[in-house]
Amino acid sequence: MVAEPTARRRSRRGRLPGRQDWSSWPHYQAAAAGFRGYWYPVAFSSQITGKPTAVTLLGERIMVMRDRGVVYALKDRCPHRGVPLSYGNQQFPGTVSCVYHGWTFDLKTGDLAAAITDGPASPICGKVTQPTFETAERLGLVWLFVGDGEDAPPIDDQLPEELVGNPAVVGVRRQAREGNWRFAAENGYDEGHAKYLHRTALWRLFKAMPVYNDTRIVRRGRWIYRVQDNQYWEADFPGLGKWSGRAWYKFNPPVAAAGNRNIGNTGGAAKVDEVIAAQDFPGFASISMPGVLRIAYPKFIHYEFYVPVDADHHLYVGVMVNFAEGVSTLPFYAKYLGAIRWLFHGQFSGQDKWMVEVTDAPPERLYRPDESLLQWRKLAEDVTEQRAERLKESGVTPDSGRPEVTR
Ligand code: FES
Ligand SMILES: [Fe+2]
To answer: Domain Rieske, which positions (predicted)?
Structure first.
């Protein structure tokens, strides 16, 4: 009799083999709706105008609007009867008024400046403060800081270092996606899939990809890097035969010049952009908290920001950066609009989107290339533990949310 395969795979306790949950990383496991204490990009700068816009970030509904050039963000729930403030509009400069009874909040402080339908002497004024969020604008995007009441660190301390102070042109793709943000971050940093899943992508169609690599994960500063010690372009699988990422119509990777071995995912580059070379990245793929992926190519860097909307949705923000200014930016624009936007930020990244939607873990049975996932979870865990200790010292309870202040 042939055993029923599912029954055979299950252990005596009726569980699938492998890791049943993520309890080895309790902070990571608890962060289904994202990590607090970071800046997140939520919209294009051009989308935020004098008309309130609603965004959801880390499960919180936030109203974002612009007043005289500056972006402000307030909790999107009127404390009076709970109507979204984002349905309101502006009646006085520097304020937003709730659509229902006209409670009017100072955009900067969140203080209730007027309750229009109770007249100028309304005694509730000065007694209610709406929680506010710090905002910033970088790379043509609006960023919000969601914390636990601590002061926001300067956003430049959190952005990838090379994006601060170097002239650059950027091509951005922003897309609301289904699936938990951790699946997106893990997919981005996952060592195993690119060579296999993406070998059919048009972006990769003419470029050979290795079958497998020897990879080490190295931490430097805030980032962990994938360092590829060896790449294998063909392999003989016992009893099965040869398998290769090469094909007659694919170009073989360029022979890397000395020192360029770790740029680009096909093994190296003949020439690397000066700003990128100056970073001396130990590996071409790196990730940092709170889910920022950096893929260094010879002439540009691609970043992915996985922004947690809630436990089941995230915002994908793909940013392609070319370190150029003036007329030398024109070839990048042409290449971005003509090709990268469609092939890379579109179809290639669409394959990742699909996988993130259908990933279902834990339970999971990890294999050797998943060292990349394990190290990312460890980084998230360690950094979050350090933050929890810092907050404890300053008397703040992490994950407590922002209290609604009523004086
Ligand atoms: S619900 Fe906002 S003013 Fe009444
Ligand atoms: Fe991918």
So the answer is: 39-144
